[in-house]
């Protein structure tokens, strides 16, 4: 029994790392406040609310109001972390994100919880797969998509000190650790998790671990795949992606999102500077059918097998 | 790729299958007021039994807000609204929108009870490729007028359907149910303002006033009071009633449009989780899934009187 279980990697809900990092920051920096939309539980902010009841502002179910209030708090010298389900935060309050956060360059941290298809059976209204494509079009906004708890905690700490608006996508679906313990998050810097020179698998967020698994499986077939973890879709690490375009035969992008996110960003870059073959693993221009998150990821080929077959197709 | 035909009925849940669901259909015409209420009460009892089994089988759902709204849904679909499963596309049908789309299971069971869905389909709730999504989708179910799930969408759409009826010179009515927490969304107040200013008398907004939202009481989050005064100030004829009283609901729906020519707002005072002893008025039951013991307990509280 126990030998079987040791093979199963421990999966982490990155919301735990987020709230732990926020609490730690808030102990020493009283400018830090949380702003929520009836989302204390879904943001795992219960301990924060208990410790700092006055520094948690619950505006009710009102996302546009929530982001505007966050911008006003930033204007008043606070460091607001505006935390809500990613689907409602982005889709409902997009103009506030564009204007109140980005155009006004307020120091506001937008925390999109349970993104991608984490809400599974609750359906497309609750999925946040458009967010990467939307957010990367907004000037002056840093968009961070952590792949594990280590990166989540570092992104939260970095964002608190950063001058300018930031969006952080915090995973609810369990993910294994993919970064080393000595990892240091740098915005605009991709991380080479595995070297390789036949093909590059560029992955973001929750599915970086799947790209690593696919690289392992490709290696068994004698194919050497480089795995690039891309923690910020904006700014994009153009140097690392163009190096991958030059040094391997092409790039497979992997994301738990519409392919207008990382896929679109990588394609726009390489087509200008070093055109190579690109394959997109993600959701293509459709609303998801009913299903659990695990079922949906398989359904859309955002899986080890799906990534392997995209790589083989690229190399064929 | 899986196809729609691969849908498997929920055979692993004996609890669901053993909980028989008889379709009562609409209240027949020409019966007494007492018979109307008895029919609706029995339908609501069966709908609640089926709802809890569905949520248990799916492992997901929003029982609290489903149990607070079921009496409203059953009264509308089985008695008050002018619509029939045989004439789904009839332009003059009354329109219904469940803006608080998280109570989808309550809508699906009510639609089955009223003959708009085959009861067997209820077993597919939230299964892969199912039409019965966690939130109702217009593209998946013919009787659903608008896809909902994000709060604050139903009321503006209801204003639009009411306007369309007015433009067509139709006497059809639109009923929309919103949650009380949901009323914190500004879009509702934009729509209420439009409806009041345009005196959209064929519109009836029903507020499921259970006083709880997802994480806390509405009054501890961002209070609505004085709600009736606010709605009146926006140009509505306002009625307060007990949202679990089928007779009172039926009478209020019968009186739409209001003689004053204003749109109607019904503040339906309800209890989240009603009438289950261990769920009622407990915010934890917003989206808690009952254990097998809790299902058994709830079903025993929902035995025929
Ligand atoms: C725009 C939006 N924000 C947040 C949510 C998450 N959410 C789902 S139900 C709910 C609480 C709703 O409370 P209420 O309207 O009072 O419904 P009820 O008590 O009848 O269940 C919340 C916050 C949502 N569905 N849509
Ligand atoms: Mg409520």
Summary tags:
heterodimer; A: 316 residues; alpha/beta; Rossmann fold; 2 domains; seven-stranded mixed sheet; five-stranded mixed sheet; 12 strands; 41% helix; B: 305 residues; five-stranded parallel sheet; 10 helices; disordered N terminus; binds thiamine diphosphate; binds magnesium ion
The averaged pLDDT of chain A comes out at 96
Please state the overall shape of chain A, judged from the principal axes of the Cα atoms: globular
- Count of domains of chain A: 2
Give the terminus-to-terminus CA distance of chain A.
41 Å
Which fold name fills CATH's third level, the topology of the largest domain in chain A? Rossmann fold
How many whole angstroms does the radius of gyration of chain A measure? 19 Å
Which quaternary structure do these chains form? heterodimer
Count of distinct strands of chain A: 12
Q: Write down the secondary-structure element order of chain B.
A: HHHEHHEHEHHEHEH
The CATH homologous superfamily of chain B is called Thiamin diphosphate (ThDP)-binding fold, Pyr/PP domains
Protein topology:
The complex is a heterodimer of chains A (316) and B (305).
Chain A: H1 2-6, H2 14-28, E1 32-36, H3 46-51, E2 56-58, H4 63-75, E3 79-85, H5 86-92, H6 94-103, E4 109-113, H7 131-135, E5 142-144, H8 149-161, E6 166-170, E7 191-194, E8 199-203, H9 208-220, E9 225-229, E10 232-234, H10 238-247, E11 250-258, H11 262-273, E12 277-283, H12 293-299, H13 304-315
Parallel strand pairs in A: 1-2, 1-3, 3-4, 4-6, 5-6, 8-9, 8-11, 11-12
Antiparallel strand pairs in A: 5-10, 7-9
Helix pairs in contact in A: 2-8, 4-6, 9-13, 10-11
Chain B: H1 14-18, H2 33-58, H3 63-80, E1 95-98, H4 104-113, H5 154-167, E2 174-179, H6 186-197, E3 203-209, H7 218-221, H8 227-233, E4 237-242, H9 246-254, E5 264-269, H10 292-301
Parallel strand pairs in B: 1-2, 2-3, 3-5, 4-5
The structure holds thiamine diphosphate and magnesium ion.
């Amino acid at each position: 029994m126990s030998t079987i279980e040791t093979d199963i990697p421990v999966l982490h809900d990155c919301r735990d790392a987020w709230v732990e990092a926020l609490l730690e920051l808030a102990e020493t920096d009283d400018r830090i406040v949380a702003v929520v939309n009836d989302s204390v539980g879904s943001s795992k902010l219960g301990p924060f609310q208990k410790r700092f009841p006055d520094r948690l502002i619950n505006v009710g179910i009102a996302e546009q109001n929530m982001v505007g209030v966050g911008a006003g708090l930033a204007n008043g010298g606070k460091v607001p972390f505006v935390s809500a389900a990613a689907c409602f935060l982005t889709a409902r309050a997009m103009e506030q994100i564009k204007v109140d956060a980005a155009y006004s360059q307020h120091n506001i941290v937008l925390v999109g919880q349970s993104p991608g298809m984490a809400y599974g059976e609750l359906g497309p209204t609750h999925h946040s797969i458009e967010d990467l494509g939307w957010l990367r079009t907004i000037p002056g906004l840093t968009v961070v998509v952590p792949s594990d708890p280590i990166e989540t905690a570092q992104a939260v700490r970095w964002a608190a000190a950063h001058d300018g608006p930031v969006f952080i996508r915090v995973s609810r679906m369990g993910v294994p650790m993919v970064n080393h313990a000595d990892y240091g998050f740098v915005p605009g810097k991709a991380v080479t998790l595995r070297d390789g020179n036949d093909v590059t698998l560029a992955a973001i967020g929750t599915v970086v671990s799947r790209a690593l698994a696919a690289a392992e499986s490709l290696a068994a077939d004698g194919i050497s795949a480089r795995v690039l973890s891309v923690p910020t879709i904006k700014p994009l690490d153009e140097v690392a992606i163009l190096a991958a375009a030059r040094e391997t035969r092409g790039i497979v992008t992997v994301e738990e999102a519409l392919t207008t996110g990382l896929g679109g960003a990588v394609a726009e870059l390489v087509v200008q500077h070093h055109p190579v073959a690109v394959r997109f693993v993600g959701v293509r221009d459709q609303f998801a059918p009913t299903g659990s998150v695990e079922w949906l990821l398989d359904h859309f080929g955002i899986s080890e097998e799906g990534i392997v077959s995209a790589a083989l197709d690229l190399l064929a | 790729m899986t196809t729609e035909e691969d849908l498997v009925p929920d055979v692993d849940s004996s609890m669901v299958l053993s909980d028989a669901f008889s379709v009562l259909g609409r209240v027949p015409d020409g019966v007494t007021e007492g018979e109307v209420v008895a029919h609706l009460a029995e339908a609501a009892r069966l709908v609640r039994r089926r709802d809890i089994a569905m949520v248990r089988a799916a492992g997901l759902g929003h029982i609290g807000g489903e149990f607070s709204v079921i009496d409203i849904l059953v009264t509308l679909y089985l008695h008050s609204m002018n619509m029939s499963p045989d004439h789904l596309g009839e332009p003059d049908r009354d329109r219904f929108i469940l803006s608080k789309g998280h109570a989808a299971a309550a809508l699906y069971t009510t639609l089955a009870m009223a003959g708009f869905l085959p009861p067997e389909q209820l077993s597919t709730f939230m299964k892969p490729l199912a039409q019965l999504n966690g939130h109702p989708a217009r593209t998946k179910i013919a009787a659903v007028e608008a896809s909902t799930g994000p709060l604050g969408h139903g009321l503006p759409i209801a204003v639009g359907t009411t306007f369309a009826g007015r433009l067509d010179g139709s006497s059809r009515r639109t009923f929309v149910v919103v949650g009380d927490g949901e009323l914190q969304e500004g879009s509702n107040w934009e729509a209420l303002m439009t409806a009041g200013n345009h005196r959209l008398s064929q519109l009836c907004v029903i507020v499921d006033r259970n006083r709880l939202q997802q994480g806390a009481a509405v009054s501890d989050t961002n209070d609505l009071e004085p709600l009736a005064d606010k709605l009146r100030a926006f140009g509505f004829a306002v009625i307060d009633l007990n949202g679990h009283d089928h007779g009172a609901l039926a009478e209020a729906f019968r009186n739409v449009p209001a003689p004053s020519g204003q749109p109607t707002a019904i503040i339906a005072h309800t209890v989240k989780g009603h009438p289950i002893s261990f769920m009622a008025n407990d915010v934890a039951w917003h989206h808690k899934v009952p254990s097998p013991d809790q299902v058994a307990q709830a079903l025993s509280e929902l035995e025929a009187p």
